[in-house]
Amino acid sequence: MNKLLMRLVFTAVAGSAMLAGGVFAQDPSSAVGLWKNIDDHTGKPKALIRITESNGVLIGKIEKLLRDPDQDQNPKCVKCEGELKDQPILGMTIITGMQKDGSEYNGGKILDPDNGKVYKSKMTLQDNGAKLDVRGYIGVPMLGRTQTWLRQE
């Protein structure tokens, strides 16, 4: 083989390996990643939330809103209180303080931008990390509701 052909073959193989590695790089035992949340009342997707980890603590920010074209594409959190009042929902941190606790994540809080309320929260990975059950509650977990989020990456 001539050098140019060998270089092209090597580049193609290396590129394919890098792409394949990216597909499988996400740790299915971690909630870190991009998630599509599904409204537990309507069954429709609402947003893409990016969960990141820093020093063992997870936070989640709204990366993209999935809204009908006739809806406001840059809504504000009019029902939020304090510093979040009237701030854009896009880019807003809605999950804070979540920490791994065995097979779950606990100890955090989640903001519902639709009603401006902050709830205690827990999260549990399902289906080998493809789904994330996110529960918001007041007082005890039994008094709350759960959304199932779908891993996007």
Automatic annotation (TrEMBL):
<dbReference type="Pfam" id="PF09917">
    <property type="entry name" value="DUF2147"/>
</dbReference>
<dbReference type="InterPro" id="IPR019223">
    <property type="entry name" value="DUF2147"/>
</dbReference>
<keyword id="KW-0732">Signal</keyword>
<protein>
    <recommendedName>
        <fullName>DUF2147 domain-containing protein</fullName>
    </recommendedName>
</protein>
<feature type="signal peptide">
    <location>
        <begin position="1"/>
        <end position="25"/>
    </location>
</feature>
<feature type="domain" description="DUF2147">
    <location>
        <begin position="33"/>
        <end position="151"/>
    </location>
</feature>
